[in-house]
């Protein structure tokens, strides 16, 4: 496949003009083309005149001729689709491998293992997706929290109740493979070419369920409402596991529990495993009118039907600490993402259409090992303390109401909330509060400086109607379980730390890719029992 990049056209142009420009650049006659289409489409909104930027994929009838055309110009390249080719190893795996967690990392690890005939057992502490959706809706309506069925736990993991973003910076060739799997299971076709692909939480649910059903059809077994509680070891080797449904023999465990499985982390620490403290971030959710964001991004072209919903990503260094926006959800809503009683956690999500009035994004400041004396237990305790403060600050509004204030109020430390054009979308309700008092002074100062810098980069970011809702504490796992080059835990043979919870991913795509690499490492070492 030949990729012709950086074809810049006005908003009035379309795919036909982009295809013609690609053929012109390649000096390629149409008669040689077998297939041609958009591989990537983005927007360059700099200089006040947005342009559409196309990457066109071209496949020739004689694929052997493609390398000659691919080297023609700097904007032209040859790409081969990444394949996941696994060759079983020499050792016999006497027991079925166990995958703990059915988020993106566990889902893709289990899929790869099932495809190779390993018939994995998958443990998920929460319920199947249909029951999980009911539990989340019940919590939103009543404030009655199920600690094992919520926005963090259950089939699909935390990413299921999000924007379904597939954007990543990891640059791994297996990203394309993950995209093809999503497409095969019902994801919208445009994720193949969007610069910032997203599925939307409404469509992602069906995709997740479809992949799980393929795992089961291939001999895998998914055990819902079953959590890992401990490990059995002998001479530094894993021999079995304890679960809430009883013990299991196990010599290969993929640990993909997600970033919020604090009780699992603590049980493993109590059992003798040493975790490392890793960087994460805390802050709040910022809401603006989506139309105002698009005016700032697209200027006079805002509202043009050829333009996607406006997105932003902002960052600023403040006294050596990073302040940045994270998980921006155009046309989305702020959601109650608690997984522990008496603690408030915010997150953002949007449906595929991104049709809501508000844009929201996390605005967070980084913290790391130096802030906690390199003690992972202190890092987890810090998250919990912030969430408890947020719960207490919002308690007057009912169970799991969240503290909120206008951006300008936060900048001045006034603790005021005036609701005008931006209607807060947090589904358990908001209460006026001084968000700065809920955070350590150094972080509050950094966030204030960061917001002022963001306003210089994106006009109107500190507009009077903009609202902050807090707190956002689950940007990533605060801990890491160290593994070696073979993806195996350095402290325990047979344990494979995987994904975001283990400290090796940061989002749906990177977690899925990590799951594939962990499964690949396991497959390359073993072959299934009975082979």
Secondary structure elements and pairings:
Layout: E1 2-9, H1 15-26, E2 33-44, E3 51-60, H2 66-70, E4 76-78, E5 91-93, E6 98-100, H3 104-115, E7 121-124, H4 129-142, H5 174-184, H6 201-217, E8 221-224, E9 228-234, E10 237-243, E11 246-249, E12 253-255, H7 262-270, E13 276-277, E14 280-289, H8 290-298, E15 315-318, E16 321-329, E17 333-336, E18 346-349, E19 358-367, H9 376-394, E20 402-406, H10 407-412, E21 430-432, H11 441-457, E22 467-472, E23 479-480, E24 495-497, H12 508-525, E25 526-528
Parallel strand pairs: 5-25, 6-7, 6-12, 7-8, 12-24, 20-21
Antiparallel strand pairs: 1-3, 1-4, 2-3, 9-10, 10-11, 13-23, 14-19, 14-22, 15-16, 16-19, 17-18, 20-22
Strand content: 25-35%
What is the domain total for the residues? 3
CATH topology of the largest domain: FAD/NAD(P)-binding domain
Total helices: the number is: 12
Rg over CA atoms: 24 Å
CATH class of the largest domain: Alpha Beta
The CATH homologous superfamily of the largest domain is called FAD/NAD(P)-binding domain
What report would you give on this structure?
It is a single chain. The protein is of the alpha/beta class. The protein folds into three domains: about 1-80, Alpha-Beta Plaits (2-Layer Sandwich), CATH 3.30.70; about 90-275 and about 485-530, 3-Layer(bba) Sandwich (FAD/NAD(P)-binding domain); about 280-470, no CATH class. It is built from twelve helices and 25 strands. The protein has helices spanning about 15-25, 65-70, 105-115, 130-140, 175-185, 200-215, 260-270, 290-300, 375-395, 405-410, 440-455, 510-525, and strands at about 1-10, 35-45, 50-60, 75-80, 90-95, 100, 120-125, 220-225, 230-235, 235-245, 245-250, 255, 275, 280-290, 315-320, 320-330, 335, 345-350, 360-365, 400-405, 430, 465-470, 480, 495, 525-530. Helix 3 runs parallel beside helix 6 (about 200-215). The chain starts with a strand and ends with a strand.
